Amino acid sequence: GAGVTAAGDLGVGASVGLALVTVETTASLAPSATLTNPAALAVIAATDSTTSATARMGATGGAVALSPVVALVLSSVTTTAIVAGGSAAAIGGALTITAAQTAVSRATAGAIVLGARTVGVCAALALTFADHRSVASLARSATAASAAVTSSSASTTVADATSSTAGAPENSGAGGAAGSGVDAAVAAERGHADGTASAAGGETSGSAATPSAATSQGGVNAAAAVGIVLADVAAQALVIGPATLTLTGAAIIDAAINADAAATADGSASQGADATIGAAVALAAATNTAQAVV
Q1: Which of 8, 252, 285, 286 can pair with 148 through a Cys bridge, CB separation 3.0 to 4.6 Å?
Q2: Pairwise CA distance, residues 252 & 275, whole Å
C-alpha cells in the first residue's frame, strides 16, 4: 500500500523507534597482578558498535497531536585498556597499551501527514545522543625496550528527520514562531529515554544541555521536522603519576579522534488542509577531546 492511512485523532508518539545502548569493553592488568620478566606485554581493548533507530508513519485526515513520529538513539560506548598501579614491571621487549573504538549512531524519522486538520509541535523528530570515549592508561612503573600507549575514537552520529510534502498543518502558534514547543517536545523525549535507560541499568544521555531550537527572533514553537545531535567524543592516552617509564627505545603516547556529527531536517510543506507549517530545525552540538598526558 501507500503507507498512508486515514486517522481520526492521533495522540503522542504514533510511531516510535527507540535504541538505548550501553557498551563497555575493558582489558586490564589488575593492581594485584605481578609480571615475571615477560618478553613483551600487550593490553588491547577494541570496540566496534553500530546503533540505529528508525520510525515512520503515514496518516491522512484527522488531528495529529504532539510528535507523531519519534526516532531516538542513546549510545554510550566506552573502551578502556589499563595497566593498573602495582609492583613495577620489567619487560624484555615492547609494552603496548591500546584502546581502539569505532561507534556509529543514527536516528531516522519520517512522517507523511496529508490533509490533517491539526498537528501539534512537530511531525517528525529524530534525536541522537552519543557519549563515545576510549581510554588507554599506564599507572605502574615499567622497564621495557619500547612503550606505546595509544587511544583512538572514531565516532559518527546522525539525526535525519523528514516530513511529508503536506508538512505539519496549522498550529495554535505559527510555524517557526516564537515559543518553546520544540524544546519542550525534545526535553520530554530525552527525559523518557533517560528514565528507560536508567531503569534498565544503562547509561543516560548525561548532563550536557540539548541545543535549543531558537533563532535570533527567539525559540521555535512548531516545526514539521526536527533533527538534533548531541555528541561527546573523547580519546585519552595517559601515563599516570607516580608511574615512570624506563626505556631503551622509543615511547609513543598518542590520542586521536575522528568524529563526525550531522543533523538534517526537511520540512517541505504544501497542500495542507489549512495553513501548513514547513519549518524544519536541524541542530548538532559536538564536544571532541583528545588528550595525551605523561
Answers
A1: 252
A2: 62
Grid cell locating 184: 519542550
Please, what is the Cα angle at 146 between 142 and 150, to 5 degrees? 90
Residue 61: Cβ within 10 Å count: 15
Q: Worst-scoring range by mean pLDDT, 32-36, 71-75, 81-85?
A: 32-36
Q: How many residues does the chain have?
A: 294
CB atoms within 10 A of CB 187: 12
| CB-CB neighbours of 6 under 10 Å | 10
Buried b (16+ CB within 10 A) or exposed e, 224-260: bbbbbbbbbbbbbbbbeeebebeeeeeeebebebebe
Per-residue pLDDT of 226-248, as tens digits, reads: 899 999 999 999 999 899 999 99
pLDDT tens digits for range 91-121: 999 999 999 999 999 999 987 655 555 554 4
Give, in order, the Cα–Cα distances in Å from 293 to each of 82, 95, 139, 220. Answer: 14, 17, 12, 43
pLDDT digits (tens, 9 = 90+) for 147-165: 999 999 999 999 999 876 4
CA–CA distance, 77 with 49 (Å, rounded to integer):
8
Q: Which residue has the cell 495529529?
A: 64
Give the global pTM.
0.83
Closest CA to 175 of 116, 122, 112, 111: 122
